[in-house]
Amino acid sequence: MDAQPCVQLWCLLTAGALAAVSGAPVQDSPATGKFWHISDLHLDYTYHMTEDPTKVCFSSKGHPVLNPGEFGDYMCDSPYELIQSALNFMKQAGHLTDFIIWTGDSPPHVPVKKLSTNIVIQTLSNMTDTIRKYFPDLQVYPALGNHDYWPQDQFPVSTNEIYQAAADLWQPWLKPEALKTLREGGFYSQLVQPGLRLLSLNTNLYYSPNKETVNMMDPAGQLQWLLETLESSRQSNEKVYVIAHVPIGYLPYAFNTTALRQVHNERLVQIFRKYSDVIVGQFYGHTHRDSIMVLLDDQGTPVSSLFVTPAVTPIKNAREPYSNNPGVRLYKYDPQSFAMLDVVQYFLNLTEANEEQKANWKLEYTMTEVFDIKDVEPQSLLKLAKSFATPHSKAFEKYFNHFMVSYNDTIVCQGLCKVLQVCAVQFLDSATYRQCVEGWLSAEGLDDNLP
Ligand SMILES: [Zn+2]
Ligand SMILES: [Zn+2]
Description:
There is one protein chain. The protein is of the alpha/beta class. The chain is built from 13 helices and twelve strands. The strands form two sheets. A six-stranded mixed sheet has the order 3-2-1-10-11-12. It has a six-stranded mixed sheet with strand order 4-5-6-7-9-8, with helices on both faces. Helix 3 runs parallel beside helix 4 and helix 4 runs antiparallel to helix 5. The chain is globular and about 60 Å long. It starts with 8 loop residues before the first helix and ends in an 8-residue tail after the last helix. Bound molecules: zinc ion (ZN) (2 copies). One zinc ion binds near residues 40, 42, 145, 286 and 311. The site of one zinc ion (ZN) has 6 residues, from loops.
């Protein structure tokens, strides 16, 4: 349980003295800020237990689900039961949090014709109401995911039924100025507290499968708005957290593939470098896996920490060798400088939960403890990234196990798998990424593996 906020000096001194006398582990300073991050809920409203293994969930796309359980299956998107158990765990965990960030993707992975604009809006509405039911008094900052549109990925550059619906649903959380840009382009900014602003970007506009924005340099004028908003934050001495669904950078499991269109990835990397004095954290979803990135400037100095949170849905593609367990996470930050202090990752062992018919969400890891780093600021993440690159790095083995949210610790990532992971952590633009991959492959004599 967290202590009540303690702002006066005597209170801080007493708390410290008591911890020292009792020898108890020193709790977080009550002055530590905390917020939750949830992503990729992907509700499959068709999930049900049935005799026919091909009919358990639409999201298995006809692949047999042999042993489905109450909390879901790795072949399916989330049953409502799983989403409720995640939110219930967060509510019961006893953390005194300042807000929740929710980085999108509510509808299930099903063929386009099984959904419609109406179903997508209903799903967004259902997930919004569910989150609000568990956290009626907590501020939530949502971002739209590529599945939060119909047809999926096809986000338009001007107002439409879905941006309008999102603005109506999120009206209790967002100010009129934020709702205005949300209605027009699916993005917004809002002051979290004096000195801290949150920017929710609609990176789906730059996602390669989006046919609506092909060949557009600045769809919906979001880049211009981003530059103006960051400049105004700099002038006002504000710090900024950026949230979005599709991350910048390279996919850690694919060769030479950016999550966004390469041209927009390069542009965003430039902008985030230019404003790295303003941006103190970046938070994404979409890959469904747990990863970090550290943005380096042109001199190779680490300037920005990026966090990709794992999904609540456990779904995997039938061809994939591994999936992720459901995860939710908590960040700790310095409430004065808003610097990022720690990542606390929680997860549900889905197999165990189904066997025990009980959702026992637990701590997976605390980043500073498991990797022995002092915080999760860019300098610390670079130090960690460098330790991954050493041969037989234990830190990298742990990182890869976290990547799958402890799905299966017998799966190892070596050779090209490791090269792609390690290069994706540190190199977010095409020139440095290619240099990293090629350097590694020639050093390991793996050049022939180049696709
Ligand atoms: Zn997703
Ligand atoms: Zn997505």
